[in-house]
Structure formats: structure tokens, C-alpha cells
Write a structure and sequence with these properties.
By secondary structure, the protein is of the alpha+beta class. It contains 3 helices and 8 strands; from the N terminus they run E-H-E-E-E-H-E-H-E-E-E. Helix content is 21%, strand content 35%. Strands 1, 2, 3, 4, 5, 6, 7 and 8 form an 8-stranded mixed sheet that branches. The structure holds coenzyme A. Coenzyme A binds next to helix 1, strand 4, helix 2, strand 5 and helix 3.
């Protein structure tokens, strides 16, 4: 089941999956978490929160209309490959279409490229390095 969840509920999975569990509780917190209009989604496997993603309004040149950036896309390792991430992102796409958003973009880890391509995102930048994390691409999905 997919639900809107409070910010406090995303930190554990972000930390475990995206920062190897090295950060203190309540981290990583992104500046974008405080942007007006930010929201967080969770996929529950039974009672267990298994996958999270966060979105906030943020335009990206050169695209027109209302853009949202996706951040903190993460599925607990034992639940990866079960289509939870795909369902969560598709839920967000339908929701954001309803909000009259035009596109979603993200800084995608190279190893997650195929995950995003499966959903229809396209690469719009050269490869770049995020220090301490690894190679990334900017990816873009037009949603209406
Ligand atoms: C990338 C990630 C969010 C995908 O979530 P998920 O719930 O495993 O995704 P789904 O099950 O819906 O989709 C699986 C697809 O993603 C791809 N994928 C990427 N990394 C994967 C992984 N570690 N395990 C399984 N599938 C992975 C596969 O290509 C698979 O596509 P396929 O069915 O064509 O083989 C998740 O694997 C994850 O948290 N990875 C580590 C953190 C990360 O890289 N996050 C993205 C930051 S930009």
C-alpha cells in the first residue's frame, strides 16, 4: 500500500540505503525537505515501510511549466526488485499530473539508471560525480 508519509518517517530508510547507515538519526535531511509543497511517499509491505521517495517543486532549465524534483528514492535491500519503487513512482506521476505538474527530474545514481529508464525517464546531462557517493546523471520525465 502506498501512502503520503511525514518527513520524520523517511530518514531511517534514506540513511540505511543511501548513506550506508552512517548518519545519526534524523539524517540525511535535504534542504529541499523544507521547501513549501514538498511531500513524501512510502510503500508499505504489510506494516513495514519498505520504500520511500520525496518530491518538491523545483524547475529545471530549459523545461517549461511546473517541475518537481525527486529525491531520496530508496528501497530497503531485502525489498528491492519487487516493483515497489516502480509502483511508488507511478503513484507520484499520477498524483502530480492531477496537481497540474508538467515534469519530474532527478539526479540519478548511475546504478539506478535502468530503474528510471523503465519508467520513461531520459538522461539529460553528461555523467557527473557526487563526492562520496558516485557517478550520476540528471534524468527527466515529462508527465503532461
Ligand atoms: C533503485 C531503487 C530505488 C529501485 O527500487 P526497487 O523497489 O528495487 O525497484 P523496482 O523493483 O520497482 O524495479 C527494479 C528495477 O530497478 C533496477 N534496479 C536498479 N538497482 C536495483 C537493485 N539494487 N535491485 C533490484 N533492481 C534494481 C532493475 O533494473 C530493475 O529493473 P528490471 O526489472 O528491468 O531488471 C532501489 O533498488 C534502491 O533503493 N537502490 C539503492 C539506492 C539507490 O540507488 N537509489 C536511487 C538513488 S538515485
Amino acid at each position: 500500500m502506498i501512502k503520503f508519509i511525514p518527513l520524520d518517517d523517511v530518514f531511517d530508510i534514506r540513511n540505511i540505503v543511501l548513506r550506508e547507515g552512517k548518519l545519526p538519526p534524523g539524517q540525511p535531511r535535504f534542504p529541499s525537505d523544507d521547501v513549501e509543497g514538498a511531500f513524501h511517499l512510502g510503500y508499505f509491505a504489510g506494516d513495514t515501510l519498505a520504500c520511500v521517495a520525496s518530491f518538491h517543486p523545483e524547475a529545471r532549465e530549459p523545461y517549461q511549466g511546473v517541475g518537481y524534483q525527486l529525491r531520496g528514492m530508496a528501497t530497503l535491500e531485502e525489498y528491492q526488485g519487487k516493483n515497489f519503487g516502480n509502483q511508488l513512482l507511478n503513484f507520484a506521476i499520477v498524483y502530480l499530473r492531477g496537481q497540474k505538474a508538467n515534469y519530474i527530474w532527478c539526479n540519478a545514481r548511475k546504478k539506478a539508471l535502468r530503474f528510471y529508464q523503465n519508467i520513461g525517464f531520459e538522461v539529460i546531462s553528461p555523467e557527473f560525480e557526487v563526492p562520496g557517493i558516485g557517478p550520476h546523471y540528471v534524468m527527466y520525465l515529462k508527465i503532461q
